[in-house]
């Protein structure tokens, strides 16, 4: 698969008419990275899968711990074990590597294999953050604009606790 690019993320935002603020910074790989700029909304972006190879993109506030058992129950997966997607799966499904996972890369999910899950807490944040397919910049936008971007990609998120 072709790797996701910053330009395609910015083009998507322009096409949808999203107003955003951009913050450039040194490469950050995790929210604990010492290079992470202070004062940005702290969110997690995870690509998960279950035993049946269902794929889930989970977007949540960073201070929330992911309870995989509870999440599987919320999704009606029964006793399925959720786990992190591999690096190879990240690349093949979204065209990104660990540390660059972003809702803007979902445009690469052309076969609609990835279900989008959004933690309800994101709805109340004044701004949310996302990488523009690179980890040397952060895009800040409203939750409403995120929903517009997802809709433009044909994604309807499932809200989770």
Automatic annotation (TrEMBL):
<dbReference type="GO" id="GO:0004812">
    <property type="term" value="F:aminoacyl-tRNA ligase activity"/>
</dbReference>
<feature type="domain" description="YbaK/aminoacyl-tRNA synthetase-associated">
    <location>
        <begin position="43"/>
        <end position="148"/>
    </location>
</feature>
<keyword id="KW-0648">Protein biosynthesis</keyword>
<comment type="similarity">
    <text>Belongs to the PRORSD1 family.</text>
</comment>
<keyword id="KW-0030">Aminoacyl-tRNA synthetase</keyword>
<dbReference type="InterPro" id="IPR040285">
    <property type="entry name" value="ProX/PRXD1"/>
</dbReference>
<dbReference type="GO" id="GO:0006412">
    <property type="term" value="P:translation"/>
</dbReference>
<dbReference type="GO" id="GO:0002161">
    <property type="term" value="F:aminoacyl-tRNA deacylase activity"/>
</dbReference>
<dbReference type="InterPro" id="IPR007214">
    <property type="entry name" value="YbaK/aa-tRNA-synth-assoc-dom"/>
</dbReference>
<dbReference type="Pfam" id="PF04073">
    <property type="entry name" value="tRNA_edit"/>
</dbReference>
<protein>
    <submittedName>
        <fullName>YbaK/prolyl-tRNA synthetase associated region</fullName>
    </submittedName>
</protein>
<keyword id="KW-0436">Ligase</keyword>
<dbReference type="InterPro" id="IPR036754">
    <property type="entry name" value="YbaK/aa-tRNA-synt-asso_dom_sf"/>
</dbReference>
């Amino acid at each position: 698969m072709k790797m996701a690019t910053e330009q395609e993320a910015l083009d998507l935002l322009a096409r949808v008419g999203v107003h955003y603020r951009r913050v450039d910074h040194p490469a950050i790989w995790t929210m604990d990275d010492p290079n992470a700029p202070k004062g940005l909304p702290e969110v997690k972006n995870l690509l998960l899968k279950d035993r049946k190879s269902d794929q889930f993109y989970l977007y949540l506030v960073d201070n929330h711990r992911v309870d995989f058992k509870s999440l599987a129950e919320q999704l009606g997966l029964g006793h399925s074990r959720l786990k992190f997607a591999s690096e190879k799966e990240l690349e093949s499904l979204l065209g990104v590597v660990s540390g660059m996972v972003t809702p803007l890369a979902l445009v690469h999910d052309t076969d609609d294999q990835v279900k989008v899950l959004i933690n309800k807490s994101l709805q109340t944040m004044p701004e949310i953050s996302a990488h523009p397919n690179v980890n040397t910049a952060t895009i800040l936008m409203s939750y409403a604009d995120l929903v517009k971007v997802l809709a433009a990609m044909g994604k309807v998120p499932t809200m989770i606790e």
